[in-house]
Amino acid sequence: MSVITNEPERTEVILEHANEAEHFLKQLANKTRLMVLTSLVGKELSVSDLLTRIDVTQPVLSQHLALLREAKMVATRRDGQVIYYRLTDERVHKVLGLINTFYPASMPD
Amino acid sequence: MSVITNEPERTEVILEHANEAEHFLKQLANKTRLMVLTSLVGKELSVSDLLTRIDVTQPVLSQHLALLREAKMVATRRDGQVIYYRLTDERVHKVLGLINTFYPASMPD
DNA sequence: CTGAATCATAAGAAAACTCTAATATGATCA
DNA sequence: TGATCATATTAGAGTTTTCTTATGATTCAG
Fold it and tell me: What positions does the domain HTH arsR-type occupy (chains A, B) (predicted)?
């Protein structure tokens, strides 16, 4: 029935998924959320941890975290009163990795 | 002075470029603009061409094209009364290619 | 149980984005 | 020149996103 379609690229697939792609990109297209997601690459962090790294108020951070949870881009684990967040969407990881290549690497700490 | 930093990934670079990354992603995070950009992969198209493929009014398309021009994601060429658009940002091409892999390939025409 | 700490939620204001409708610009052609 | 075609621009309305402020829920220590 279906044949192997081995063109080097078929970006047109997005045309049929433009709504989903728009939605996905919108979830990433926010400074606070980008910083959250980037901070979570390779490690789990608590909300307090994130608050020390990102300059936003607690409710604002919490609202962005709620959005990311809803989007299933992150998941949580509770330990006492602390809630740890981690990345759960490999697509996010890939996009962050690509975007990362667009900017010059800065001096590591 | 600087040393080779050859970690497998250093997504933290985005942290220092979160504003730019947000701006870049916002420009992509729109159905009409995604369809425009995707339609332009590998080919030049006129505004009329785009209008036949994308279901929006002429002024709306023109406004989105203005934004993409401003963002330098596309460039134009005039031939008589027709204006042709083409992609000019390799980063856009790369992101579209990646997003594309997130969706199942559909049957080619 | 009371209080403090950590995190979440909700309502409304403010800001940003997108569309509608009307008009303008530039090119071609009779 | 005047009409028409292709595309762009503008003002304002409508919609969506984000923030502010206040409050709620859960956990733990004393």
Answer: 13-107
Nucleotides of C under 7 A from a protein CB: 5-10, 17-23, 26-28
Express as a percent the part of chain B with pLDDT over 90. Answer: 79
CA distances from A31 to A10, A56, A59, B22 (A): 30, 11, 16, 5
Closest B-chain CA to A1: B107
In the chain, the amino acid numbered A71 is A
Longest CA span, chain A = 55
Distance CA B85, CA A74 (A): 38
Under 8 Å between Cβ of B67 and B27: yes
DSSP letter, residue A84: E
pLDDT value, residue B28: 98
- B16 → closest Cβ in A19, A98, A106: A106
DSSP-based three-state secondary structure for A107: coil
Q: Which residue has the higher pLDDT, A15 or A17?
A: A17
Is B86 within 8 Å of B40 (Cβ atoms)?
A: yes
Q: Which nucleotide is nearest to A69 (CA to C1')?
A: C8
Q: Strand ranges (DSSP E) for chain A?
A: 45-46, 74-79, 82-87
Q: Which domains does chain B have, with CATH numbers?
A: 30-100 (1.10.10.10)
Cross-strand bridge partners of residue A46: A84
